[in-house]
Amino acid sequence: MSPIAGKRVGRALCIGVEAEADARTFATIAQQRGFVPPALLLGERATRAAVRSKLDEMAAVSEPGDLFLLTFSGHGGRTKLPVRSGAPEPVGLWQLYDGSLHDEQLKSDLGRFRPGVRVLVLSDNCSGGIPSLRASQLTESLSASVLVLAACQNDQYADGTGLPGHFAHVFSCTLNGGTFDGAYPQFHQALCGRMPAYQKPDYYRVGVPDATFEAQRPFTI
User: Fold this and answer.
1) How far apart are CA 49 and CA 54, in angstroms?
2) What distance in Å separates the CA atoms of residue 40 and residue 36, rounded to the nearest whole number?
3) How far apart are alpha carbons 163 and 146 in whole angstroms?
4) Is residue 219 part of a domain?
5) Per the domain annotation, does 1 fall within a domain?
6) Are strands 76-82 and 39-42 parallel, antiparallel or unpaired?
7) CA dist list (Å): 142 to 28, 111, 113, 116, 205
8) Which value, in Å, is the radius of gyration of the alpha carbons in the chain?
9) Helices 48-61 and 103-110 meet at what angle, rounded to 10?
10) Residue 123 falls inside a structural domain
11) Range of 18's domain?
């Protein structure tokens, strides 16, 4: 179905590597909330080239006022890359099928989204997802408004032994079919209240501040 001219559109890219069921959970939630059928990149299809190509495609079609949802479910971590000063700088990593996608690459991809576009990133992996994306040096080139919900803090692991899909399950239960009556900050607090102490979800904003976006119910197109 083609979007109606002048109407806000919700689009989604859901990525899953060794956590395909969780990616499908987020895609299902998006479709239930009125998004166009989400793009799914699972397992061996979730390569760096495929992910970045799809992000480029989504940026090209997203108009001001639209909502783009990007989810990653899989392994994450942190490493250190040299910077101009010579000192190593920690960056977050998403482990895709054929290698890692780090913060600088993701920042470049998100930088293609136009002003007025709302972007919601759900990072369901260890080490806080994309921890250094919140650094001003990495976000000053973003034109869109970006909210990030990560499955855990920078120094934590996502899920404990025997708890596959913990964050995705709690996320779905808290959203409660879209009936959750609160804004994104309240939704984050509700998630924290349902998760164990060893895994507390993180929440932050990057790019252009948008108080209206933050004040909306989660997944509101």
Assistant:
1) 9
2) 12
3) 29
4) no
5) no
6) unpaired
7) 28, 5, 8, 11, 11
8) 16
9) 20
10) yes
11) 10-214
Spell out the per-residue pLDDT of the chain, length 221, in tens. 445 556 899 999 999 999 999 999 999 999 999 999 999 999 999 999 999 999 999 999 999 999 999 999 998 876 655 555 455 555 668 899 998 888 788 888 999 999 999 999 999 988 765 655 665 555 667 899 999 999 988 777 776 544 457 899 999 999 998 889 999 999 999 999 999 888 899 999 888 999 999 999 999 99
pTM (global) more than 0.85: yes
For residue 121, what is the domain's CATH number?
Answer: 3.40.50.1460
Distance, first Cα to last Cα, the chain: 16
Number of domains observed in the structure of the chain? 1
How many whole angstroms from its chain centre is CA 109? 13
Is residue 107 included in any domain, yes or no?
A: yes
Measured between alpha carbons, how far is 92 from 131 in angstroms, rounded to an integer? 6
